[in-house]
Task: inverse folding
């Protein structure tokens, strides 16, 4: 794969990890409200 | 097996035990930002770093902010290492004029070192320049260990603090872990290694004239067999000691040379070998004391230490016993231990370390997430090789990686407390904090992601003759073990290789990179979510119905939960790999 694709893939993986953080946090908020 | 071997194993454990208290107490002081004797030197450096990076170390972070900072730091440093690898041909400290690292390999290596895995799909001395080793890789040896340490401390704060929202400041924890813990110990350790003969230079490689010239026949570029006379040998050099120290202390494991700690320039003497093994366990064992001190329950810290020690002893005993056995394939050959031979299985082992220190090293490096090797795990007996793999599959929580071992173990502690609560029908409590549904959901997420990645990637590789199986050198159960071990090592961020597998292909570089990334980041997110939940809870006083986490009963339950969870999850795969290979070996078949 080219440099650009690998850098984009890395960015996407870290972005997904951030989404995962948010999802875990939202689950906690939802539980608290329930 | 010999009495001498058992005494060496006992000595190793006793020194680990003796060092746990001072190093653990020191880390408590460092992370509670109390005064240490290194402050006059390090505080000005710390202040300067904060000033340059515009960081306010007193600014407390919620778990989400703590993780976002960690992800940002990891992302930027990953790209930095990738760029250095790709551009090394144009950068200084490259006396061998090595070319830039190919893209996929550079990416896999950057992910590998960022995640504390240090899996190496390349031969370092013919691939990486001195600058890449020092600036691209050794820096990650510090940073990835400091990140793990910071996360473990944040988790412990989550348990210790009451009715708060924050876990500390990631940048301050990262800086203090690097400056106060990793750097000073590494300097002392590197000097000790130099005293044993580990090299430290920036010279071009040496060329030695062979005393016995060799004739080598190999295919040339057109595939035609060509015989050449080999009269010289290239002897690689480099700044090894400085990298070796943090490689072991930070439970990183990536060797300066391809042979790793079996190479005489990395690990020349039995004493350097002993120091290397000790340094792997030094910080993780100390963290059990830190846990006890920061949660104001020192006995709990020792109860966790005891569970780790039991699992370590079980692993090293099995591995040592298996490797000391005579091979059933060599009929009529004396394989007993004696004054003139080590006895047992010496294939793939260095004579200067022998069976005891090879089995002990293999156990310690996989109990922790180190992955350095001083022998070839692929050449171990099936049951001897099962031990390193099982250690990683249990989650590397037997002392474990720097920080990672502690937070992995705390997930099992929470699960054990939960199971104990279910047994007596009470809401489970852990050190005064109620363990509720969200905490268990996150704990299960942590525990399920791990096997999902390992078994998922292994299954895909096994089903793919062109991508997965084409890299294998062995077939049958041993081939399965090689694939399973590779993804286990990557996902567990261990980095040791079973070998027998060429992982420097596009498929393996990319799939291993993703496995390493998921094994690090997707697991520590639910882990810190639990800390973020616990830190907000109020503390409930212990009652007669509270399950104590300071007793031998707790240690027994914790050990049982770890073994049962690990055994239930991975037993089918292990039965088809090393267990089947062992049975077939007894029947006279080797792979």
Result:
């Amino acid at each position: 794969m080219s440099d650009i694709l690998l850098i984009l893939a890395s960015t996407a993986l870290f972005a997904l990890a951030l989404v995962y953080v948010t999802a875990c946090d939202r689950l906690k908020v939802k539980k608290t409200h329930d | 097996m010999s009495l001498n071997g058992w005494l060496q194993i006992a000595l190793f454990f006793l020194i680990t035990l003796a060092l746990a208290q001072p190093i653990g107490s020191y880390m408590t002081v460092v992370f509670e930002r109390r005064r240490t004797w290194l402050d006059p030197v390090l505080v000005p450096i710390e202040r300067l770093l904060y000033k340059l990076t515009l960081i306010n170390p007193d600014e407390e972070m919620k778990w989400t902010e703590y993780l976002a900072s960690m992800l940002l730091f990891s992302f930027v440093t990953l790209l930095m290492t990738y760029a250095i690898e790709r551009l090394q041909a144009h950068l200084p400290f490259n006396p061998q004029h090595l070319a830039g690292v190919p893209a996929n390999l550079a990416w896999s290596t950057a992910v590998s070192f960022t995640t504390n895995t240090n899996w190496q799909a390349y031969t370092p001395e013919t691939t990486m320049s001195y600058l890449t080793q020092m600036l691209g890789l050794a820096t990650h040896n510090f940073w990835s260990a400091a990140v793990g340490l910071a996360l473990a401390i944040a988790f412990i704060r989550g348990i210790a603090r009451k009715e708060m929202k924050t876990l500390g400041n990631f940048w301050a924890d990262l800086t203090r872990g690097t400056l106060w813990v990793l750097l000073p110990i590494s300097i002392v350790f590197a000097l000790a290694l130099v005293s044993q003969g580990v090299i430290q230079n920036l010279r071009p490689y040496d060329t030695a004239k062979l005393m016995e010239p060799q004739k080598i026949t190999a295919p040339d570029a057109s595939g035609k067999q060509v015989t050449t006379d080999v009269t010289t040998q290239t002897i690689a050099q480099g700044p090894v000691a400085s990298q070796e120290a943090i490689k072991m202390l930070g439970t990183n494991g990536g060797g300066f040379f391809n042979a790793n700690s079996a190479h005489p320039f990395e690990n020349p003497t039995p004493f350097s070998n002993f120091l290397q093994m000790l340094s792997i366990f030094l910080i993780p064992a100390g963290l059990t004391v830190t846990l006890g001190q920061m949660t104001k329950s020192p006995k709990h810290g020792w109860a966790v230490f005891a569970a780790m020690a039991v699992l370590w002893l079980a692993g090293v005993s099995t591995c040592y016993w298996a490797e000391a056995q005579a091979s059933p394939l060599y009929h009529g050959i004396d394989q007993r231990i004696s004054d003139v031979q080590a006895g047992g299985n010496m294939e793939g082992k260095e004579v200067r370390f022998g069976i005891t220190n090879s089995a002990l090293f293999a156990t310690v490096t996989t109990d922790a997430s180190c992955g350095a090797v001083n022998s070839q795990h692929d050449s171990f007996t099936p049951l001897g090789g099962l031990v390193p793999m099982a250690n990683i599959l249990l989650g590397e929580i037997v002392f474990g990686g720097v920080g990672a071992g502690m937070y992995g173990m705390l997930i099992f502690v929470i699960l054990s407390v939960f199971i104990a609560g279910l047994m007596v029908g009470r809401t489970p409590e852990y050190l005064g904090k109620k363990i509720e549904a969200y905490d268990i959901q996150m704990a299960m997420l942590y525990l399920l992601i791990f096997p999902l990645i390992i078994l998922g990637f292994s299954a895909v590789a096994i089903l793919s003759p062109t991508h997965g199986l084409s890299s294998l050198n062995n077939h049958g159960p041993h081939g399965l073990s090689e694939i399973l071990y590779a993804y286990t090592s990557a996902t567990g961020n261990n980095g040791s290789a079973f070998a027998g597998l060429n992982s420097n292909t596009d498929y393996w570089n990319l799939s291993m990179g993703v496995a390493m990334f998921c094994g690090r980041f997707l697991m520590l997110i639910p882990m810190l979510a639990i800390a973020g939940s616990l830190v907000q809870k109020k503390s409930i006083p212990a009652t007669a119905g509270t399950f104590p986490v300071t007793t031998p009963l707790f240690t027994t339950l914790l050990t049982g939960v770890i073994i049962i969870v690990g055994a239930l999850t991975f037993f089918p795969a292990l039965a088809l790999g090393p267990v089947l290979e062992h049975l077939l070996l007894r029947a006279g078949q080797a792979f």
User: Anything to note?
Assistant: The radius of gyration of chain B is 24 Å.
